[in-house]
User: Which sequence fits this backbone?
């Protein structure tokens, strides 16, 4: 999971995308970073602004109590707020 090299925070704001690089700014100290992203593996929280990869997600606690029978199946649980996270369409990831 992305964390700030300066202060260790995991709270980032996405600044934009250039090619396969996603640019971020740390909300705690303002440090900017760019990382390579895998657009086919992007997931986003359904509640907060967190985005990441499938590997960053936690297992979903009480799955069947949190999803609708005919609704989309979540990819995991957001590591920041615990809400459900879903795979993003490649065009939405960039």
Assistant:
């Amino acid at each position: 999971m992305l964390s700030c090299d300066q202060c260790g925070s995991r709270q980032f704001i996405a600044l934009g995308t250039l090619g396969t690089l996603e640019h971020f700014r740390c909300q705690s100290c303002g440090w900017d970073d760019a990382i390579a992203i895998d657009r086919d593996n992007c997931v986003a929280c359904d509640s907060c602004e967190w985005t990441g990869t499938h590997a960053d997600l936690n297992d979903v606690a009480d799955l069947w109590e949190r999803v609708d029978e005919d609704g989309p199946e979540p990819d995991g649980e957001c590591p920041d707020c615990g809400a459900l996270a879903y795979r993003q369409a490649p065009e939405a990831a960039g």
About this structure: The CA atoms of residues 41 and 54 lie 6 Å apart.
